[in-house]
Amino acid sequence: MNKFPARLLTLIENRKKEGAFRALSSVNGAIDFSSNDYLGFARSEELFSKTFQLLLKYDIGQNGATGSRLLTGNHSLFEELEKRLATFHNSEAALVYNSGYDANIGFFGCVPQRGDFVFYDELIHASIRDGLQLSNAKSYKFSHNSLVALKDKIGKTVSQIGKQSNTEIYIVTESIFSMDGDAPDLKELTAYCKSEGYHLIVDEAHAVGVFGKNGEGRIQELGLQKDVFARVVTFGKSLGVHGAAILGGAGLREFLINFSRTFIYTTSLPPHNVITVLSAYDYLSSNGVNRRKQLLENIVFFKSVIEKQKLSNYFIASNSAIQSCVLPSNDTVKIVSNKLKDDGFDVKSILSPTVPEGKERLRFCLHSFNSKEEIGLVLQLLSKYI
């Protein structure tokens, strides 16, 4: 076997010294305050059964997709799913990707062109940052959820570099941020982008299923879908299955099919995976309202217990299913996480460099299936340990 490169070994050893070394662990059966399965769809036996019935209905006996969608993998179920997505999310068109990561890499790697500017929230997801690294456009971060900072950054950038007549400006944010659980003022941001002719892109990964009358996400909840250039929705969180889609105009869909490398050069999702997404959207329509109601009640209850236990100063303000308790230092959050694990609770520690140094945290993910007793006890134990 070839000797492992010394420079790579040094990087691993440095991670260990910093207390930031990552390792895989198996699911332990503890009480779940960690997964993205906000509505319990991923573990729903009823959804599993309905999906199986759909497989029989469509006579799906094919294991794999056999190729990319531009070759042999564009089975007819994609058209049905993309029509369903466009209708449900009130969008002109939709294009399915293999994952949210693929969608963001594929979008930002090809849509912003040389000479364009992209301004992104400083806490934007890693997949968007990685996509921007593949882009020929210049990209700049602005202070988290600050429209004032965004306007200032755009003004200074345009005055320093100059803006050509064909320069496009793209603004990127998330409707619910994955690590802080907070949200931008989307009405204000959308109005600003519309007034200036900028293109707004919103990642809705942690909002779909949780927000909106039928779980459509925050953009539709606020009635902003016609003024947003593109939305990214994912199926691996509230919907409990796998995959993602980009929502936007028909022109955007055509462009992505022709230029998005993560769409063009990968084997497509197999037919049975697409069936699971169709089934999950059916299930969201029939069961989502009650589960979403229970989840929102749990969020309110969780926040009331935080206040009762005098923990408010530790938590980032959030009205979403993501509630983050900041405990600076990797060692501290790992110790508290392990103590909760010993008590039978799965609460993950989020370490730097995933979050900035000094912002290490316990990330509580709430679900429709968490009981009030579980919420009360885990926060009682947290108060004891910190």
From TrEMBL:
Highest taxon in the source lineage: Bacteria
InterPro entries: Aminotransferase_I/II_large, AON_synthase_class-II, PyrdxlP-dep_Trfase, PyrdxlP-dep_Trfase_major, PyrdxlP-dep_Trfase_small
This protein's UniProt keywords: Aminotransferase, Pyridoxal phosphate, Transferase
Named cofactor requirement(s): pyridoxal 5'-phosphate
GO molecular function: transaminase activity
Family under the similarity heading: Belongs to the class-II pyridoxal-phosphate-dependent aminotransferase family. BioF subfamily.
Protein name in UniProt: Pyridoxal phosphate-dependent aminotransferase family protein
